[in-house]
Amino acid sequence: MLALPHLNRTLVMGILNVTPDSFSDGGDHDTPESAIEYGLKLLDEGADIVDVGGESTRPGASRPTVNVELERVLEVIAALTKARGVVSVDTQRAQVAQAAVAAGAVLVNDVSGGRADPDMLSVVADLGVGFVVQHWRGPSDQMDQLARYDDVVSQVRRELADQVDLALRAGIAEDNLILDPGLGFSKNSEQNWALLNNLDAFAELGCPLLVGASRKRFLGELLEEGSQPRPPKQRDDATLALTVLLAERGVWGVRTHSVRAQRDAIEVVGRMGGSHCAAFR
To answer: Which strand ranges, in their side-by-side order, compose the sheet holding 210-211?
Structure first.
């Protein structure tokens, strides 16, 4: 099995949502043909990993059936793998993860960190692939009500640490684990900013860090015009600014909609002297 990439720079995970209802690009690539074409474009632009997902996790989203999710992602994963792309699958279902790895995926990016499906951790352990442990408190139709913390940084860190322990006990190799603080998942804007300003709190957990901030609501609220948040596709410049800061901090990877701009910015960071800290790689 291909080892997880560890580079001397922050890597770029390109987002490929094969869905009709994702918050920013739902319907843009909702057929296998259009998704494959877009995935190849992401690879051409320099994506280190293409993250293929068949289920929207925007707040309030309803879940597709397992069969629908499989139909959305498997052909796309197989085609991108054939083109020598490194592919991850964005899924909360063990059945989808297993089929996706058989189709060529080398990383399972589970927004629930293994909590949504009781079989996920054992299946990933058996597969021997990488696994993203994201902080998660509940499904999309409940997440906004669960954004209650006394201290968001310490509580997210503790809850992530608990999930790491469960993953290790299930047999997933420590070298295959990546952490994601789960920006926007059961967090409001202020809580997201608190996590971003305290990423050092996660270094002690000893795993690489993936940050998914691209086009998210807290950026739209930061840039609101009048009382209206900036629309998702107009948040790429703010996302890029955040990527520069994250690359300077030495995070393992960023998950993004705009691959070429992110790669360019990360190259500039490297040329200016690289990251100040490599604790998240």
So the answer is: 177-180, 130-134, 107-110, 87-90, 49-53, 11-17, 253-256, 210-211
